[in-house]
Design a protein that fits this description.
Layout: H1 3-18, H2 23-35, E1 39-42, H3 49-59, E2 64-68, H4 76-79, E3 80-85, E4 90-95, E5 102-106, H5 113-125, E6 127-130, E7 133-136, E8 142-147, H6 160-163, E9 168-171, H7 177-192, H8 209-221, H9 226-240, E10 253-255, H10 259-275, H11 283-294, E11 299-300, H12 302-306, H13 311-321
Parallel strand pairs: 1-8, 1-9, 2-5, 5-8
Antiparallel strand pairs: 3-4, 6-7, 10-11
Helix pairs in contact: 1-2, 2-10, 8-10, 9-10, 10-11, 11-13
């Protein structure tokens, strides 16, 4: 493990002290950061989703901004707008909250389609257009969008084609009882002022933008064996044509993962191996991340859903049936 990998290990440990009981969410955040992608996080309220990315923002060189999505939000509330200056009769661009490095799009499914499209266009193109002018966004630029699976009233579900823009779709669950005891103890210490809810940057392993860029290049250069690359491709191809792996899967999928899914799984598997201090990818890296990379990219048939099949179960079946090299 080189010095840069040790820096990320320190960053992960520091996040784990502030975000207790959600190791997978922390790992996925770091993978998204290394793979230069965005993530959609789904879970009940109070599971430290906001806290996780806020703490990462404190430990990463750059700026963080939280946007609460509501039904009355407008695209200009994200992108910014041209403001008229009466003193010299000109228009000046006022940047919106998207001009930050880390963005928390809280409850993205509460905003209408125009606002969602403005955000997703920024995610894909890393730029926004206001009038006839295009403005580049910050680098790095990471969006973590959250959605509440409990409440469906007054929400605008993301279309499947827009969901494909997210690198990962992460589901978070309640912490174990031991972790919840630690959460209670931490909350009491924060309430009494013993520890700060947001640690000062000089006490945290702050990661510079230059270090992040070097880490991303190391991830891209990580070794992926040819047989493992073929396994990765066959796994994604199986989501499009599952029939060779069992007649019970025939007709279960209307649409499978696109080439964007293959690219995402490749980059995320490399990032996970790099975070683990390895110089090569293992089959476990691909299998472990297949759920988060593929679950939002699959559209199941009505018959499959009527038979109790969901995306996670289908991915699990394909992992069990596609031969591992």
């Amino acid at each position: 493990m080189d010095a840069l990998q040790q820096r990320f290990t320190q960053l992960k440990e520091a996040l784990s002290q502030q975000v207790i009981g959600q190791p997978e969410l922390i790992e996925r955040l770091l993978i998204a950061l290394l793979a230069d992608g965005h993530l959609l996080v789904e879970g009940a309220p109070g599971l430290a989703k906001t806290r996780a990315i806020r703490q990462l923002g404190e430990m990463l060189e750059g700026s963080f901004h939280r946007i609460q999505f509501t039904p009355d939000l407008l695209p200009a509330d994200l992108t910014g707008t041209d403001v008229y200056r009466a003193q010299d009769a000109t228009f000046a661009f006022q940047p919106g909250p998207l001009f930050h490095n880390l963005i928390l799009a809280d409850e993205i499914n509460r905003a209408p389609a125009k606002v969602q499209s403005a955000l997703l266009e920024a995610m894909a193109e890393r730029q926004i257009s206001v009038g006839q002018t295009t403005y580049p966004l910050a680098d790095p630029f990471l969006v973590m969008a959250t959605q509440n699976p409990i409440e469906q009233e007054g929400t605008y579900p993301l279309p499947e084609a827009q969901l494909d823009r997210f690198l990962l779709h992460v589901r978070v669950d309640y912490p174990a009882v031991e972790s919840e005891r630690k959460i209670l103890a931490l909350a009491r210490r924060e309430a009494s002022g013993e520890v700060a809810a947001t640690p000062p940057q000089n006490n945290a392993p702050v990661l510079s933008v230059v270090e992040l860029r070097h880490a991303r290049q190391q991830v891209l250069d990580l070794h992926l064996a040819e047989n493992l690359e073929e396994y990765l491709l066959q796994l994604v191809l199986a989501t499009r044509h599952p029939q060779p792996y069992g007649e019970d899967l025939a007709g279960a999928i209307l649409y499978g993962g696109s080439p964007r899914a293959s690219i995402a799984l490749d980059r995320c598997a490399r990032a996970r191996a790099w975070l683990a201090g390895r110089d090569h990818v293992l089959p476990e890296d691909i299998q472990h991340l297949a759920f988060d990379v593929l679950r939002h990219r699959l559209i199941l048939s009505y018959e499959a859903e009527a038979n109790g099949m969901d995306a996670d179960r289908l991915i699990s079946e394909l992992i069990a049936r596609v031969p591992v090299p």
